[in-house]
Structure formats: structure tokens, C-alpha cells
Amino acid sequence: MDTNNIMISLGLSVSDHNMFIVHRETTLAVSTLAIDLVDEACANVRVQLDSQKTEEIDNLERKRMQLEVELHALEKETDTASKVRLVEVKKELNDLRVITKEHADSR
User: Fold this and answer.
1) What is the model's pLDDT at position 80?
2) Which residues are in coiled coils (predicted)?
């Protein structure tokens, strides 16, 4: 049975058939557009998350280097305040290494 016979048996006119085709094509186009928009949004979020992680890791590395410089300077000092700060810096460095490792493992 061809399309015309089906349309006639269903009581549809040519204009009804054309409206159906237009509706179907419009629905498909909108669906494709929606999928494209969601895909693009997800890609943008992924790029932002990746760059955010990179920035966080850079900040952690910078902080680690600052603490290492301070650590080496404090190791040469003999006063009580420097010794107390030396203990604090060693703890901060240790904590920072754990955090940096967690960030690296999550990538």
C-alpha cells in the first residue's frame, strides 16, 4: 500500500500529510538541537573543571615551594620562635603533600 492509499484509508488529506511531515521534521530538528546544546554545555563544564583543577594544583605547588624555602631558612635559625614555626611549616608541608596527591589521583 503506498502513502496516498494509507492517507485515504485514514481520511487524511494531502495538507494533513504535509503538516504531519513538517511536524515530524521540526520535532527531529529541535531534538537534535537540544542534544547539541546539552553536549556543548557538558563540554564547557568539563573544560572549566579541568582548568580549575589545574589552577588549584598550580596554587598548591606554589604554596609548597614557598613553604620549602621557609623551611630551609628556619632550619638555620636557633631561636625558639623559629623552632616553633619550623614544626608548623613541616606539618603544613606534610598536609600539602597529601592534598596535592589527592588532587593528582582524582585526575
Assistant:
1) 94
2) 50-77
Which helix (H) or strand (E) segment holds residue 98: the answer is helix 80-106
101 to 81, 93, 98: CA distances (angstroms): 30, 12, 5
Residue 10 lies in a domain: no
How far apart, in whole angstroms, are the C-alpha atoms of residue 107 and residue 103? 7
Is 61 within the bounds of a domain? yes
Q: 19-58 in b/e burial notation, b at 16+ Cβ within 10 A?
A: eeeeeeeeeeeeeeeeeeeeeeeeeeeeeeeeeeeeeeee
Instruction: Give the tens place of pLDDT for each residue, 57-75.
Output: 888 889 999 999 999 999 9
Q: Give first-to-last CA distance, the chain, whole Å.
A: 58
pTM above 0.70, yes or no: no
